Amino acid sequence: MNSPWIAPEIAEAAQAADAPDAAARALKIERETHKLEKRLCRQVGQAIMDFGMIEEGDRVMVCVSGGKDSYGMLDILLKMQHRAPVNFELIAVNLDQKQPGFPDHILPAYLKQLGVPFHIETQDTYSIVKKVIPEGKTMCSLCSRLRRGILYRVADELKITKIALGHHRDDMLQTFFLNMFFGGKLKGMPPKLVSDDGGHIVIRPLAYVTEKDLTRWAAHRAFPIIPCTLCGSQENLQRKQIGNMLRDWEKQYPGRIESMFTALQNVVPSHLMDTKRHDFQNIRTTGVPEPEGDTAFDAPDLPTPGAPGGVQLVQL
Ligand code: SF4
C-alpha cells in the first residue's frame, strides 16, 4: 500500500476501511482519487466562472515553478480545457533563474511528455540578487521583483491575455492575515486583478482549492517536484507563523477556515471603518427598515455557523 503513487490520506482511508481484500482496497483508493479529481475540477471551474477568469480566445500563460501547486494548476486546467464552454489556449512558462543545482531538464521533459505548448525563459537573476543583497539578508523581495518584470515581458512576447498563478485558498487566507497583522490592512490576495504594471490580467484559478487537496493530487500524479529551497533563502517566518496559526485554529475549531474564507466573499463596508469605502459623512435616515442597519442597543450578533441569518458555510 505504501507506494509513492498513492496519496498517504487515500492509502490510509483504504486501509482503515473494512476492506476484506486487496481488490476492495484498490477500488476504495480509485473511488477516493476520482472524488478528489472531481472536486478539484469543480472548484477550479467554479472560480473561473465566479470571477470571469477565462474567456473565449484567451491565451493563458500558466506559470510553472516545479512546485506541487503549479503542477496541479496546469494539470487541472488541461482537463478543463477539454470540457470548457469556451476555447482557450494554455502555454506553460517556467523561469529558470539559474539557482545552483536547478535541474533544468525536468520541466522540459515533463511538459513535452504532456504535449502542452511551453516556453522556458532562462535569466540569471540569482547572480544579480546575490551581488546586490548583503549576505544573511532576505533576497525574496528583489528576486520576485526581477521575476515579475521578466514574466511580464515574456507574456507580451507570447501575446498572452491572462497570466495564471498557482496560489490556493490557504495562500489567500495567509496573505489576508499577513496584511492585517503586519500591514494594518484588510487586504487579501485577489483571484483576478490587473498586474501592477497595468498591462496584464493575473488570475488564480486555484482560489477555492485547499493546499491539502493539492498535496494529495501531487502525490497521486507523482509530479516531478523541484525543491523550492535551491536559492538558500530563508522561508518567510511571518508567513510560516500565520500558516501554523491557521492550522492550529482549524484543529481546535473545525470549520473556522471555511468560515473565514466565506467571510472574504461577504464584505460589509458599512460595518467597517474605512471612510474611503463608505460615505459615513452623508449618512441620513431613510425611514425604511434596513436589514443591514445598526441594531443599536442589542448585544453584538454572534451568528451560529449554518444557522438562518448566520454565517453560511459554502460547500464547494
Ligand atoms: S525563495 Fe528564493 S527563489 Fe523564491 S523569491 Fe525568495 S529568493 Fe527568490
Outline the fold blueprint.
Layout: H1 8-16, H2 22-50, E1 59-63, H3 68-83, E2 89-96, H4 106-114, E3 118-122, H5 125-132, H6 140-157, E4 162-164, H7 169-183, E5 192-194, E6 201-203, H8 211-221, H9 237-252, H10 256-263
Parallel strand pairs: 1-2, 1-4, 2-3, 4-6
Antiparallel strand pairs: 5-6
Helix pairs in contact: 1-2, 2-3, 2-8, 3-8, 7-9
Number of strands: 6
The CATH architecture classification of one domain is: 3-Layer(aba) Sandwich
Low-confidence runs: 1-5, 307-316
Q: Name the beta content range.
A: 5-15%
N-C termini distance: 30 Å
Question: What is the CATH topology of one domain?
Answer: Rossmann fold
**Envelope shape:** globular
Distinct compounds present: iron/sulfur cluster
Q: In which range does the helix fraction lie?
A: 40-55%
CATH superfamily of one domain: HUPs
Rg, please? 22 Å
Structural class: alpha/beta
**SS element count, helices:** 10
SSE run: HHEHEHEHHEHEEHHH
3D architecture notes:
- This protein is α/β, with parallel strands linked by helices and about 325 residues long.
- It has a domain of about 200 residues: HUPs (Rossmann fold, 3-Layer(aba) Sandwich), CATH 3.40.50.620.
- The chain is built from ten helices and six strands.
- Strands 3-2-1-4-6-5 form a six-stranded mixed sheet, with helices on both faces.
- A hairpin with a 6-residue loop joins strand 5 and strand 6.
- The chain is globular.
- The N terminus and C terminus are likely disordered.
- Iron/sulfur cluster binds next to helix 6.
Relevant terms:
316 residues, alpha/beta, Rossmann fold, six-stranded mixed beta sheet, globular, binds iron/sulfur cluster
